[in-house]
Amino acid sequence: MSEILQMNNSDSAFIIANVSNSHNDAVAFEMKFAKDLTISQLKSKLEILTGGSAGTMKVELYKGDTLVTTLSNNDAKLGFYANCDGLRLHVIDSFVNFTFDTETVEKFELTKDQYEQRTDSVRNFLKQNRLGKYNEEEMRQMEIKRREQAEEMQKRADLCVVGSRCQVTVAGNPTRRGVVMYNGQLEGKNGIFIGVQYDEPLGKNNGSVGGKSYFVCPPNYGGFVSPLSVEVGDFPPETFDLDDEL
């Protein structure tokens, strides 16, 4: 699983993450944050964006709907917790977090037009300050970057023909050699993944993920990685001849 989380943005000084808050889970907006921000500095920025209090807020890190961790160390850097795009920062502010009895309190709802006309909404704040999707130039640059990454991903994936010898390089792991066994999507995951049977038991599975088998190999010989981590070529299995050692 750690191989899947470590995509191709680990060298960037920034991450792009969605921001949501406990008072309106339906409203989420995309922002770019420097990885060298301390959690304390991050909370100050989120205070401006969400209207919460930096001194009382709790920030949770999600990947999809799965809670990854709580950003509890105010002195730690954001990059320590988050090193790839596509994550979500969820703000919970206990200072203004009131609980209502939904059975007795009348539900108050706004139409889309009524919400557009409000001046105290998150959407209006983002528009006035040209943040997130309302910063046209930033959104255009992000779209260009996403398109370029998608094209490069597809180009590298096309080279990963099943049966080809390959070398896999993933940050935080030793370089491994093996054979391409699968090329495609994984159920419940976004993007393309390359399934590899390694020459040595340096993998994390037997070709199965989430109970579904994509190829068959011995336990701990299989792994799924981004196409950007795979180099296809003439990579013979590594041998260790102990007789030649002194």
General description of the model:
This is Tubulin-folding cofactor B. Belongs to the TBCB family. GO terms for molecular function: alpha-tubulin binding; microtubule plus-end binding. The chain has helices spanning 2-5, 39-50, 78-81, 112-117, 122-128, 136-159, and strands spanning 14-21, 24-34, 57-63, 66-70, 87-93, 165-168, 176-184, 193-198, 208-209, 212-213, 222-225, 230-232. It is an alpha+beta fold. The chain folds into 2 domains: 6-134, Ubiquitin-like (UB roll) (Roll); 160-232, SH3 type barrels. Strands 2-1-5-3-4 form a 5-stranded mixed β-sheet. A hairpin with a 2-residue loop joins strand 9 and strand 10. The protein is elongated and about 65 Å long. The chain starts with a helix and ends in a 14-residue tail after the last strand.
Task: Provide tags for this entry.
5-stranded mixed β-sheet; SH3 type barrels; Ubiquitin-like (UB roll); Ubiquitin-like_domsf; cytoplasm; elongated; microtubule plus-end binding; disordered N terminus; Tubulin-folding cofactor B; 23% helix
What number of structural domains do the residues give? Answer: 2
Fraction in helix: 10-25%
Mean pLDDT: 79
The CATH fourth-level homologous superfamily of the largest domain: Phosphatidylinositol 3-kinase Catalytic Subunit, Chain A, domain 1
Q: Based on the structure given, which CATH architecture of the largest domain is correct?
A: Roll
Q: What's the number of extended β-strand segments?
A: 12
CATH class of the largest domain: Alpha Beta
Radius of gyration over C-alpha positions, nearest whole angstrom? 23 Å
- What would you call the shape? elongated
| End-to-end Cα distance | 40 Å
User: What is the topology, as strand order, of the major beta sheet?
Assistant: 2-1-5-3-4
CATH topology-level fold name of the largest domain: Ubiquitin-like (UB roll)
Strand content: 25-35%
The count of helical stretches stands at: 6
Helix-strand pattern:
HEEHEEHEHHHEEEEEEE
Keywords: Chaperone, Cytoplasm
InterPro entries: CAP-Gly_dom_sf, CAP-Gly_domain, TBCB_Ubl, Ubiquitin-like_dom, Ubiquitin-like_domsf
Subcellular location: Cytoplasm
Main location: cytoplasm
